[in-house]
Amino acid sequence: MTSDGAPNPNEPGETDATPLKPSALYTFGRIAIAPLARAIYRPRVEGKSNIPPEGPVIFASNHLSFIDSIAIPIAAAPRPVHFLAKSDYFTGTGLKGWFSRAFFTAVGAVPVDRGAGQAALDALERQRQILDSGAAGALHPEGTRSRDGRRYKGRTGVAFLALQTGAPVVPIGLIGTDKVMPVGAKMPSLKERVVVKFGEPLDLSHPGPASSGRARRTATDEIMAAIHALSGQELADAYNALPAQTPIEKIKRALPHERR
């Protein structure tokens, strides 16, 4: 794994995850949940004609809210879209656990273990399997949600997938999802409206092979520039990161040599 979150081509990336197979719950979600959500939230969708009707495609968007990955499949329907979600959403017990598992399955989520190292490699491998099956996958190059509304630098895992598989990348600008469900909110607001902008598919065959760090960086910057053109966010010249969880981590991040 490289420092910006891309896989190291010399490291193994195999996983025992099974090929993607649509379940009855997912079929139900496409038929019932997506139209219901569109009726309630009335998202404004622009550039829908830019979505390839079939074949593998990577949807790459900015990341403002928990609901971003759900908003994309709803806006892209009837084109099926899958996104990765942490496995905790699928392993709960009781009625709450059943509801969480059923909901995320219905909206196209694929469970993965989240984290660095091998977990990150396995997540990328799962996305590659989604693309190899001819499906569409949604990813957020920034990695985690922006807490200040700015658009952060993209990590190169998305570009690695595009260069490795040859799948086109459709950039997406999400606007207003942070108002519908801000960080920390328990339920989405019904007062706000989301805008989903699909850009023209990007052909990233020119930067070079996936094994080239320069090619991955060039492709990533091209993806992020296209996202910015759609979202219009203020730019942050840094990588986004989760807030420090421990006192030691907070101290390490405050040290000058730890800053990016």
Automatic annotation (TrEMBL):
GO terms for biological process: phosphatidic acid biosynthetic process. It comes from the Bacteria. Coiled coil: none annotated. Keywords: Acyltransferase, Transferase. InterPro entries: Plipid/glycerol_acylTrfase. Residues 57-177 form the Phospholipid/glycerol acyltransferase domain. One of its GO terms (molecular function) is 1-acylglycerol-3-phosphate O-acyltransferase activity. The keyword Transferase applies. Residues 1-20 are annotated as: Disordered. GO terms for cellular component: plasma membrane. PANTHER family: 1-ACYL-SN-GLYCEROL-3-PHOSPHATE ACYLTRANSFERASE. This is Acyl-phosphate glycerol 3-phosphate acyltransferase. It comes from Microbacterium sediminis.
